[in-house]
Specification:
2 domains, Rossmann fold, ANL_N_sf, AMP-dep_synth/lig_dom, AMP-bd_C_sf, alpha/beta
């Protein structure tokens, strides 16, 4: 597996953080030393290890050490609120909390008293479903899930042993974690950074370390495009990837054109935490032709579409719910200590097909498209409203908007920009005319930027909270 026998890459540089670097031989030794320390402290097997996953070398070492042991790593946002951490400790009863910090600083804190060991089976990692710091619902991923996804990614991404990738996505986020796993699988180098794309430090890393690839979510690419990313040369950059949500087609085209003109490759990908990160990718040579597509399943993966009646859809251009099957599909969900007591039993309940909750269709060439979310619906005054479809229509009409709400009203967050003060009435009038929504059923909230969660995804819950504050004010 990718986390075993790391010393086979010997003196290749495995990871860099600031002025610190570590070879694969050194990383393997650090992994074994930390594994011994963990096992000496909490026993040989069956415990949960909470890891406050700072984006750096300390997290990398304790993550790999936990995978090598018979314990289970629970990756958390390093900035988790103390109240949220306390609640998770009460719910899951970990044996240890690993506090990871910069400059390879690691502090292992024992929970007193140690909980009774669990039957973990082959569960390797628990990841939050939403990226929110206090979410109690976690996805249980086996070591085989993690390894299978890393192997599949390496079969379609051109990762070389000599590559250096920029790891700026959160370590505890499934997309960011998959970047790390796949590069370790190939013996490549991960450069960890918490710098923002708007900082000089971020771009200095490209020159200093000859960055060959990087990954981003829609929010980060929208920011990069505003920063005129497509005017940068970046001579060592070979390819870049996008996942974590749907990027607007015009942005996909702009990035694909940049890649084509500068001898680079741009990969659009689709995934969920429940599938250990990746389920499909759109080949770079197709991006300009079908920029709204998520492409085809990753190697060893398979899609199917299911109608509302439960019948599988075999015809092209027919909408249904997207299902995925592959060795990277999770074991199941856990949300409390009771679930943890026998994680091994999850291996007998592992879903054969994962219901993604996304609605889509397949073209005649076998490429898939997502055009809605099964659960993203409201029912306003007896009218069923597709929130994703509403967002697309508003975007097409020239409004940079995101939609959420409840069965009482539709909430529209909109980037104000340079529009006039009549923006709220303008949007309400447009929705009334085109969707038949009465203005009293619509709340419009002008924003300077959309709220994003720790993973860089659109945070609809935060948008709702902003609206509540706006009403209170």
């Amino acid at each position: 597996m990718f986390f075993q026998n790391l010393s086979r890459f010997n003196q290749q540089i495995a990871a860099i953080e600031g002025n610190l670097s570590i070879t694969y031989a050194q990383l393997a030794q650090a992994q074994q030393d930390t594994k011994s320390q963990i096992q000496h402290s909490i026993g040989d097997a069956g415990q949960l290890v909470f890891i406050k996953a700072y984006n750096g070398l300390s997290t990398l070492v304790v993550y790999l050490a936990t995978l090598e042991s018979q314990h289970c790593a629970v990756l958390l946002d390093p900035n988790i609120k103390e109240a949220d951490l306390t609640r998770l400790v009460e719910q899951f009863r970990p044996a240890m909390i690993a506090h990871c910090e910069a400059a390879q600083q690691l502090r292992l804190e024992l929970v007193d008293p140690l909980p009774t060991p669990n039957t973990l089976g082959n569960v390797g990692v628990l990841l939050s479903t939403s990226g929110s710091t206090g979410s109690a619902k976690h996805v249980a991923l086996s070591k085989e899930n993690l390894n299978a996804n890393a192997q599949s990614i390496c079969r379609y991404l051109p990762i070389k042993t000599t590559d250096v990738t920029l790891c700026a996505l959160p370590f505890h986020y499934s997309y960011g974690l998959s970047v790390i796993n796949s590069h370790l699988n190939q013996g490549a180098c991960c450069v960890f950074s918490n710098a923002s794309p708007v900082s000089r430090e971020y771009w200095q890393l490209f020159d200093e370390h000859h960055i060959a690839s990087f990954a981003g979510v829609p929010f980060s690419y929208e920011l990069l495009l505003r920063l005129r990313f497509t005017q940068k040369k970046l001579p060592h950059l070979r390819y870049f990837t996008q996942a974590g949500g749907k990027l607007a087609a015009e942005h996909v085209v702009a990035l694909a054109n940049y890649a084509a003109k500068n001898d680079k490759q741009f990969f659009v990908m689709y995934g969920q935490t429940e599938a250990t990160a990746r389920m499909s990718y759109l080949a770079p040579d197709k991006v300009l032709d079908i920029p709204e597509s998520i492409g085809q399943p990753i190697p060893d993966g398979e899609f199917k579409l299911v109608a509302q009646s439960g019948i599988q859809i075999d015809d092209a251009d027919t909408q249904g719910e997207l299902y995925y099957k592959g060795p990277n599909v999770m074991l199941g969900y856990v949300s409390c200590r009771q679930d943890i007591t026998d994680l091994a039993s999850l291996e007998n309940k592992q879903p054969k097909w994962l219901a993604t909750g996304d609605l889509g269709y397949r073209n005649r060439q076998g490429d898939y498209f997502i055009n809605g979310r099964k659960s993203r619906f409201l029912k306003l005054a007896g009218q069923r409203l597709d929130l994703d479809d509403s967002e697309r229509l508003l975007q097409k009409a020239g409004f940079n908007a995101k939609c959420t709400g409840n069965d009482n009203n539709l909430l529209v967050g909109v980037i104000n920009g340079q529009r006039d003060v009549n923006l709220i009435q303008e949007i309400k009038a447009w929705l009334h005319q085109h969707l038949g929504l009465h203005p009293t059923k619509v709340q419009v909230l002008p924003l300077t930027t959309f709220p994003a969660n720790a993973n860089g995804k659109m945070d609809y819950a935060a948008l709702s909270q902003l609206a509540e504050v706006s009403i209170d004010d």
